[in-house]
Structures are given as structure tokens and as C-alpha cells.
## 1
Amino acid sequence: MTEPTHSVRFITLEGPDGSGKSLQARLLGERLRAAGHDVVVTREPGGTRTGEQVREIVLGAGRGLDPMADALLFSAQRAQHVAEVIRPALEAGRVVVCDRHRDSTICYQGYGSGLDVEAMRALQDLATRGLLPDLTILLDVSVDVGLERRRAGRPDELNKFELDGAFDRGYHERVRAGYLSEAAAGGRWRIVDASRDPGAVAADVAAIALEALATGR
Ligand code: TYD
């Protein structure tokens, strides 16, 4: 019996605030399309109408929610995103590039806010009905570089985790350490140094994704 060939199609970008994921997700989408792939670029929280509404609740007016409420809301929008956008695209044979996914809840609400990491992992398995990314690229950046970048950007882009006064260094250090600890498991994870200029980061991200798409690993 021949083994089914496992193809890499579901790619997630993860990282601390200010790691440049949104730009890198867009650039990766363009690079993969130029290489002939049929690509959907999407993001969390968001990606669906419900997801954008949840984004408004967790990052907008609903600031200060209990971490478990955050975890459940992020996971609820993820369930809808998987059902409505990600799984149908994968089933149609398309490549999905997602800016944040399950590991954001594990690292922010788990490692960052101190909720049980294994419970957060189990919650993700439920929300996604067991769908795992084939490849996860961690855009690693220090808390200082990440914060500096966000401050240099448009002030209205600062979310509740970054607003002056609300900034909690320890929290962001735990998030970053959480990502590095998750990525140390290897498997679907790759780490890219995102403190460099965006062009250099984009080149590395594209090379990793193209290699994975070509080899299925
Ligand atoms: P966003 O403005 O999209 O930040 P970024 O451009 O850095 O992705 O805001 C997303 C914020 O929400 C970010 O601080 C991380 C946080 N978040 C969680 O805490 N848990 C999650 O599951 C997700 C998806 C995001």
C-alpha cells in the first residue's frame, strides 16, 4: 500500500506584538502567488464577519476582560474561521497563510496570562476540530524591539496590550518565552529572526514556505 503524500498547505505566522507578522503575511502571499500557488491570506482575530466582531470585543471596547473570557472568545472566532474559511480553502486545494492562529491563544492567554497551557492546547484542539497547521513560522523579536516598532507605527493601531500605562513588560516577556518554548518542540515550527529589516525577514519566510510546499515537509 502506498503512503498518502502529506502536502503542506496550512501555514501560520506567529510572534510577539511588533514582530511584523501582518506585513510578512501579505508579502508571503504575494511571493507564493508569484510562484504559482493559489493562496488565501487571512488573519486572527478576524477573517470572518463574526471574527471581526469578536476582534472589536477583545481588542476594542471590551478591554479588561477576564483572561478566560479572552481565551474563549479568541477560540470561538477561530472555530468559525476554520469552519467558514480555512477548512473549505484547504479542501479546495488552496494554500492558506494565516496571521496568528492557535499558538497565539496558547502563548498569550496560556504563558502570558497564566492560564493552564495544556488546557489552552486542548481548547484549540476543540475549536479547530483537530486541524493543525502544517508549518508555523515564529517571527521572533525582543519585547523592546517589538514595542518600539509598534510605537513608531500609527498610534490608533496600538491595541489594549500596548497602550501606555497598560503595558506590562513581564506579560510580553512571558509571551515571547512561551513562543520560544513551543517552537523548541521542532516539528511544524521554524524560527526567523524578525528584528532584521523586513526584506531580509520576507526572504527567509518565503524560502522556508517554498521549501515546505515543494517537499511536503
Ligand atoms: P493585532 O493588532 O492584530 O496585533 P498584531 O499585529 O501584533 O497581530 O492584535 C492582536 C492582539 O491580540 C495581539 O496583542 C495578540 C492578541 N491575541 C491574543 O491574545 N490571543 C489570540 O488568540 C490572538 C489571535 C491574538
## 2
Amino acid sequence: MAESPISSQSCHATLTESLASKDEQADLPWWKTTVIYQIYPRSFMDSNGDGIGDLRGIISRLDHFVYLGVETLWLSPFYKSPQADFGYDVSDYKDVDSIFGTLEDFRDLVKECKKRHLRLLIDFVPNHTSTEHEWFQRSLKKDGKYKDFYVWSDGKVLPDGSRARPNNWLSVFGGPAWTWSEERQQYYYHAFLPEQADLNFRNPDVVEEMSLTIRYWLDHGVDGFRVDAIANLYESENVFQDNPRSGKDVPSTEWEYLTAVHTDYLLPECQNLIMHWQKLFDDVQELDGRERFMVLEFYTDSKTRADMARYGAHPFNMDLVEKLSTPLSAKQMMGLIALEYTDKPPSYWPTFVVGNHDRKRVSTKFGSLYVNAFNLLLMALKGTPTTYYGEEIGMEDIHVDYEDTQDPWGRKAGPDRFLEFSRDFCRTPMQWTPDQNAGFTTAQKPWLPVSSDHTFRNVQNQKQDPNSHLNRYKDYVALRTRKAFKYGEIDLNCLLTDNVLSFLRFSGSERYLVAINFGQIDATNDFSVSPVNASTGTVVTDTAAASSELTKGQLIHLQELTLRAGEGVVIEL
Ligand code: GLC
């Protein structure tokens, strides 16, 4: 019995001119046709047996990406750092932490990537430095130009002459965002840990140092950056203003207790800074003709993303990371997806993400049944997708006891609440083989435990199985070599039910229907109606669902097509 479709109008996306893609757009810049893969260096591959992943480890696994067909890597931080926030607390922007290797290793990584035609994006963490950074140490001493490198405040003088913080701002990781420095007799602001002091971007010397940092890595041959915590770069200049209460029922020390109107939104200054960085890219491109790409970490809404694109910025679209409800609703998903193609300026380019090193994995959040469905969705949508390491084999979060918790956010939350905050669960070592520690390290004890399911869930085993997550992922990436997926158009105005979403990708006479059942029950639907207007098609790839009747190359009828729960299919029309 066929399901009754929800009005197809509800998924109608207004396609902007910017997205109108004709064959002549085959020369899209590389970052519009690529797949980005996020490597969390601590967890990817350990080459020296200390239990922590490193750059040589990554080099030794580069052929993984050649196998998958993935062309761009994004490396989370590998800079010199005391590792208070695992590298997001940089103490020297121009050096590699000895845990990860040396600058020479980095240069080799660039070379080895080039050999394989892989692009390299690196994490850039401009908002804050480690308090061990020389700049902070000199700022403590009010030393020359470093005096105002950070956000310092005398705080409020209380009637009894003592000092109090200038405002109620909270740190993202919980607790006050101001810490008193005995040495300087002032408070400094930190959006994250007290060990991560916020730089003062209103100081031109800071802007200059950071520009030099960007230039330094561009000169090392990187293809661009993922910019960390962009919304935190500037705070309201008048620090004697409290953030208002959010009304959320959370402890008063938690970040969500307040609405961060003075600290966590894009001030106009930020726009100028992003444009300034973009200009640095353009300057380098003029010299060597190579286009660079900068993608911004920002959890925001569709309208703000559109506004940002007007001045040339490319924020990640985090809607699928943070806005999907469970159990999944295809209608809700399609609503979020359609936003990405609606009311956007010509400079806008969609960037879809489902997970990262800060959030639960797909399998854990939605269930292992949907791993392939999400991988397929990401690769089939128009835009640039980003895959978090391990998603190609369907890795799951694992439990790490409070006693073994590494993540500062988890540790700060304490034994009763660490489960809500710890990010260790999604950062466990990559599972390469069924051997001890999944082939990640020869150490007895890796920095985080390896999932016990590595004995069957690993790259080596999945390579042997044509229906594995890995080989399906490879298929989905390969879709993007076809014109329709590489630079073709998307039409979202197709069949949509509570459980099933579908869309068309096309270029010239090439047309594909992508249909995915995100529900929990089988669904039979008529996909032949407009705009599909076809009664049969050939299966190109699917999600290899158990008991599925679909096989690659099979001719199928679209009037009554059954998709199992979690099943998706790409049909050439
Ligand atoms: C970003 C990173 C996160 C880090 C934080 C502070 O949100 O993704 O891992 O803890 O910035 O640098």
C-alpha cells in the first residue's frame, strides 16, 4: 500500500541563480566539487607507539583517501600546545607539537598529499591562545606591544575596595569567563577554558600577527583553513554589560544559562576581519594561481549564513549537526536542507556537515541503520560535504568512564554530568584492522580506549566486503564524478513523506533520483510523478539494506518502490 505523500510544495526550494548550474560550470573551483574529510590527528594513526596519533601516522594512511576518492583533508590542530583542550589551546602557531611530530613531518605531509592530488586544509584557531603562549606571558608583564594583546579588565571596584568580574559572562565550558591574574592584577577574558585566553582583535598588532600566521602556512603549501570559533572573535567593547538570562532550566554556571548576546555573535568587526583574511588568500592566489578556501566554524541560522556569504565568507552549515530531532523525520530534514538553497546570494555555496569532533557520531545519535543513509545524503546533495573520520566505516561513540575522561569539558562537568558534555566518546581511535588497538597504535594503552567492535568494524575487513559501509561510502563519493552530481542542479520538489525524502540531481540529459527512507518502517511510494516523470530507472547504488530487493544495475519500477527503514537508493533515469 503506497504512503500518501505530503504536499510536494512543502519541500519546494527556490533555486537561486547562484545555484543554477549549467554544463559550462564544469570549471567550478576545486572546493565546490570536493569532499572534505576531517582528521582528528590524536586519533587517526600513531606512528611512534606513544598511543597518540601523529603526522607520520597520517602520512602512512594517505592511501586510504585515494581508495575512497576523497580529495580534501582537514586537520584539527597539530600546533605546539599544552593540550589543555587537545590542541585548541595553541602556544606556538608556527610550530608542530612534538606529540604530533615536527615541521619537517608537516612538510612531508604536504608533499605526500600533493603526490596523491590531495588538498590540505588546516585548523586555524584565532580566537584564543594558550596561556603558555609567549604573547600571553609577555602580556602578563605588560611587555611592549603585547600589553593589549588580550582582553583585560580591571573589573568592578566594590564598595569595600575589592574587585569583582566586570560582568556575568560565562565560558562555553562552564563557569565564569573571566579569570583574575595575580601577576597583572586584572581579569582576562576566555570564551573557553581559563587556559585559553581570548586575543584582542581590536588591537591591530594582533590582526597583523594572525595575518603572518596565515601567510606562514600558505607558504607551507596548504590549500586553506577551517577557522575555529568564529563567533567568539569579538565581544562587546563595553564589558560592563551583562548577558541576559536565557530562561533555560540549567545550573547558573552553565553557558546556556545566559543568552550570549555580548559574546557569541558576529559583530561587524568580524566581517572586516574575514574579508581581510580572504584578501590574504587572493594575494597568494595572484602569485601562484592556486585558489585557497576558508570555511568557518559557526553554529548559526540560514539567514546569517546568507548574510555572511554577501561578504565572501563560507560558514559550515551545521543544521544537520544540531537541529535534527530523533526519531528522524524526513520532512524536518528536507525543511533544513531546502533552507540551504533558499534566499541565498550568488556567492553562497552549500556546505553540509553531519558530525565532527565536538558532537555525537551518526550511529550513536540516530542508530547504525542510518549510517549509509547519511553518507549517501551528504554526497548526493548539491554542495561541499564534510565527513568526520570513521563515519565511512560507521564508527560508534563508546563510553569512557569519568575516571578516564580526558576532555576538559567532561572533566569540568564532574562525575554526575560528564556524560552530557564529554567529547571523548566521539574521539576514539580510528579502527583500521581487527588487531589489538585496531591497528591504531602499538602502545599498550591508546590515549582513549579503542571500541571493542573494532574486531569486525574496521577498514581492513570492510574493504573485503562490497556491501560494507566503507565500500558504499566509496560508491557515494564516486557519484560525484558524474556531471549531475559534480556540478549539476538539484530539484527538491519531489516526493516527501514523514519518512521518505527524495530529490533529483541533473545536468543536461543526465538525471538521477535520490530517495532515502529515514523512518523506522518500510515505505512504499510512487516516485514516478512530476518532476521525475519516469516510470523506470536503473539502480546506481544503494545503502545495501538487509533484505532489500534492490541491487546495482537493476531496472526498477518507480510507481511502487519499497524502501526498507534506513534504505536509500540512487536511480539513473
Ligand atoms: C571549537 C572546537 C572545539 C574547541 C573550541 C575551543 O568549537 O571545535 O573542539 O574546544 O573551539 O577552541
## 3
Amino acid sequence: MNTLDGTNIPVHEPERQFYYIEKAKKYVAKKAKEIGRDLTFTVTTFGCQMNARDSEKLVGILEQIGYVEEADEEKADFVIYNTCTVRENANQRVYGRLGQLGHIKKSKPHMMIGLCGCMMQEPEVVEKLKKSYRFVDLIFGTHNIYKFAELIATRFESNRMVIDIWKDTDQIVEDLPSERKFAFKSGVNIMFGCNNFCSYCIVPYVRGRERSRNPKDILREIEKLVADGVVEIMLLGQNVNSYGKNLEHPITFAQLLQEIEKIEGLERIRFMTSHPKDLSDELIEVMKHSDKICKHLHLPVQSGSSRILEKMNRRYTKEQYLELVNKIKTAVPDISLTTDIIVGFPGETEEDFLETMDVVKQVRYDSAFTFIYSKRTGTPAAAMDDQVPADVIKDRFDRLLKEVQSISAEVCSVHTGTTQKALIESVNDHDASLVTGRLSNNILVHLPGDASYIGQIVDVHLKECHGFYYTGEISR
Ligand code: SAH
Ligand code: SF4
Ligand code: F3S
């Protein structure tokens, strides 16, 4: 396209975005000159690992165009909220904090506020923002975050609220800049979207249909990360077990893992999330023989009642789930299993709940995320008429949490006295003479050390278990 100033705007991606990065850079530099210092930004992430990874992409673009990261949201010139809408309370938190930002902006007119992520894919949310939060500068969704530089440039040029939301996309744009929160580990998207439509869940509506990245692109990204010092990767997708099914040359998730395993210098491979209905024998076999795949599987059960599971559209029964767990435990005896559980799905009776408790007792999870069912407008479950009263849910939730916690303390402590490899991730928040490492099974251990240990994999003697973490020392 020819523009008035004679430049050609590239039509194809990622070239188009590199063009806009340069353009936005000029606007940022101009503004910085005006105010006499660098412009700063804060990206605040709500929600899951997928959002966290998206935020790293936003940070990558912001840094390319000349913004400098600022830890304190109140001081930043550009505040971005990458939002989540999986449960209602996630939305409430965003509105609350946005109100505060509005006040800050009144005394700092050049400040910009950007909103993106899953909440923005809901038309009611955008309507509400347009009506009651006029001070927001930029609103975009989950499908076009790669256009961030272009949207920023547009905002600088228009001086009005810029809104760009796509309903869905089949596009995956590769090779854009991205930052990493940690030097030694990184999330890697292997697929986007979800096709499962569990009846309570809003994710398929806000993240669109399932799209797998090309294996070559994934391998290339990981190779680059490893060359840059990364030793652990987390493969990300809403349902990694169905990876590759809709590619032009289909490959399975297990095959992808085997390819990734060959990358020299990569030490640890994690992945999430696994949907039980798609977890194959092939994957169990690959995990069993792998040196790099971590001994941890997050396998959300959601409910232990086959009747509720059917209403949830999970497409497995309690028995099938337990059989799968047995198969995995037999093949990989030291595996750590974690899960997600929803309490109070419409129509859940005390008997249904006791089935969930039974699964928890049988599987003995290392840890479990427990959620109170949240009604999401537009999902099939929201229209189900037998919603469970709040006090009943609360009582069940408390009982479940107690059970989960007491089992996880027991399960966690079985490694006491052993020596295991830990990847040292950080200096301990509360005690600077300690560092914190992560074991293959995802359990944390605190041990004496300093910042020079960060990023190293060391042998740690696990001295004492404190419920869900260990204290230990380097074993020499
Ligand atoms: N794709 C993943 C989960 C993504 S959402 C999977 O299928 O396992 C993360 C968790 O949030 C879900 O596992 C579920 O336990 C919970 N969740 C999703 N929708 C919810 C709702 N409406 N109310 C309460 N919890 C919900
Ligand atoms: Fe939601 Fe189910 Fe998809 Fe997970 S698999 S994101 S719970 S619809
Ligand atoms: Fe939330 Fe979106 Fe993740 S709704 S859980 S941030 S996919």
C-alpha cells in the first residue's frame, strides 16, 4: 500500500509489524523528549500460563519500541492489563483496579491504559468499557496481540480510544520479538484455542478454535531459546494431547515431544494442560522412557461423578479417569499428579460431591486447584436450571480443600531424605541466604545459596518436608 508520505506499508506479517515497531519507536522517542525522560510501562497479567506467555510477547514489543519497564503501576506511563475471564471474580478484579487507574490518569494526562486478553473477547465487556471507562486508550483481544505495535502507532496518531477485537482467526504469526521473565526457563506455545467446549467453560469462546503451530517453528523457537541459555521449557496449550491433529501433515503430541527431546542442551520439558480424554498410551510410553520430560502431569478431573462429567461434556467417566491414572502410575511410578476440580457445578448433589472426594482419596494428588463453579454467560451450563446454593457449595469446598491439603502434605513428604535434581529459580523472597529450586515433580525446595546459583541444575538433599515444599542442601 502506498501512503501519502511515500512509504510502503508491508502487507505480510511479521514484516508489517516490524514496520510499525519502527513507526511507534519514533512516537515514543518524541514523547520521551517532550517529558525529558524515558517512557515506562507495566504489563499486569491475570489468568493462566497462556496469558503469561502472551504478556512476554507484549513486553518484547514494548521494549523494541523504546519503553522501559517500571515495576510500580502507579508510576508507569503505559499500563497494560492482560485479562482473564475464566471465572467471574477475575473480571471483578480488573474493574476494581481499572477504577484506581482512572484516578491516577487524571493527574497524569499523557498516561496510556491498554486492555487485552480474554475478557476483551466478550462484547458486553467492551460495551461496558466504552460506556463507563472512557479513559482507556487501547482495547484489543486474544487473536491480534501480534498487532500490538500497529495498534500503539494508531493510538499515537488518532488520540481516540482504539478498539480492535477479532472474533476468531486461523492465523499464527511467527518470529515477532518476545521477552522472557526468566533467563533459564520459558513457556512455548504449541497450540492456541480450544475445541472441547466443556459446558462450564468460556475459554473456547474467547480463545477461538484449536490451531497447532507447525512443529518446525516450535523446534526452531526452542533451539533458539536453548542457545540463549534456557534449560527448561513448558509447552503450552489448552489441550496439548490433541496437538497436531489439524496440521497439514498431522503429528501427535508424543511425536513432537520426542523431537524436542533431541535438542541438545535442553534439560527439562514440561507441558500443560492435558485433557484426560486425549491422553494416549503413546504419550505414557514416551514419558516412561524420557530423560527430559519432568515427572509431573497436570490432569484436570473437574469432578469425580460420571453423571456430572457428562453434563460438563468432559467425555470420560470416573472409571476411565481412574484407569488412566493407574496406567500412568504403573508406567512412571514416581510421577507427581496434580489436578483442577470444580465444586458446585449445576445439579451437583451430595452423592456427586462424595464421588469427587473419592477420586481425590484414590489418586492422592500432589496438589489440586479447587474452584467454586462460576456461571459464565453464553456457556451451556449457565442455562442449566439447578444451580447449587452458595452455602452448600461453600461447605463442600471447605471439606474438599481440607482433604486435598492433608493428602498433599502426606504425598509431598515421601521424598524426605532423598537427593534430587533441582533447577534453582530465585533467591528466596523471605530469606536472602536461601535460594528456591524446583524439582522435576514441580515441588519447591529452599536451600542455602546465592544469586549465582540461579539457572543451574543441582543435586539437592531433601532434609525436611513442610507440607508442600522442602528445605534441603546441596549434596556434594
Ligand atoms: N484447558 C484446561 C483448563 C483451562 S481453565 C483443561 O481443560 O484442563 C483452568 C481451570 O479453570 C479448569 O481446569 C477448571 O477447573 C476451571 N474453570 C474453568 N471454567 C470454570 C468455571 N466456569 N467455574 C469454575 N472453574 C472453572
Ligand atoms: Fe475449557 Fe474444557 Fe477447553 Fe479446558 S478443555 S479450556 S476446560 S473447554
Ligand atoms: Fe483465563 Fe484466558 Fe487463560 S480466560 S484461564 S487467561 S485462556
## 4
Amino acid sequence: MSTKFKILIINGPNLNLLGRRESSVYGTMTLADIEESCRTRAIELGVELEFFQSNHEGVLIDRIQQSKQHSDLIIINPAAYTHTSIAIRDALLAVDLPVIELHISNIHKRESFRKHSTISDIAIGQIVGMGPKGYLLALDGGVNYLEDSRP
Ligand code: DQA
């Protein structure tokens, strides 16, 4: 049973514009659509879900710090901060929760500056290029991971 698991999904800058932003790259689903699909999947999986977005690095870091008390696993799409933010990496290391890195697009076949991630080596794994459905894959993978890690 996975009823007790609490999963936090964090979204970084400009992801509030999904649906209106470069739809050829990111698709036409809005972040609210993605949140709704994740909430439906979370009910099916029997897990508690928190869904969070901010455009501000410090706000993302505050939310990561708070997760220590409230979450079992973090799924994070740090958006452009993926490629620059040592502070987000440090916050994830500080809370020491399992992390799944998620990108809607395949960052490895885009501009070279997107190939580098400050968090991929501290994540359980990375989901890239699967579009908005990647969030559902991350949820499934996160629950599998937590079930496998249960003592
Ligand atoms: C992104 C990829 C990043 O390079 C970009 O800055 C984003 C979104 C993705 O989901 O594909 O904002 O994280």
C-alpha cells in the first residue's frame, strides 16, 4: 500500500505560461491541466500530492527546505534554473529526499547550454522529452521507488 506517500511536484520559472509558451516545444497543456492530470493519477496511486510553481529561485529554495518535514519524494522541473542553479542543487542536497528530475522537452537535443543540469547527478533519474505526460511517468516512477525502498 502506498497510501502514506507524500509527493511534492515543483515547477520553476515560466512553466506558469505552459500552453501559451512555445507550444511546438512544450505542447498545449496548461500547468493547471498538468496539475489536474497529476491529481487524478495521485488518487489512483493512493498518494498525497502537492503541486507548486514559482518564477523565483529563492521561493523555490524555501519550498524545497520546507519539504523535509512534509514530503517523501520530490519531482522537480527547475526549468531554466536546471542549467544554472547551484543553490537549488544545494537545497535538494540539504533536505536529502529522493529527487526525480523532469523536463517536458528533451534537453539533450536542444541548445548546448541546456545539456548541463546542476541536479542530474543527485537525482534518482531524469525524465525528458516525454511532453506533459512525463509528469505522470515521474509520479509512477516515484511511487515505485518509494515502494521498493520501504523497509
Ligand atoms: C524545461 C527545459 C529548460 O531548458 C527550459 O529552460 C524550461 C523548461 C522543460 O521542461 O523542457 O523552461 O525544463
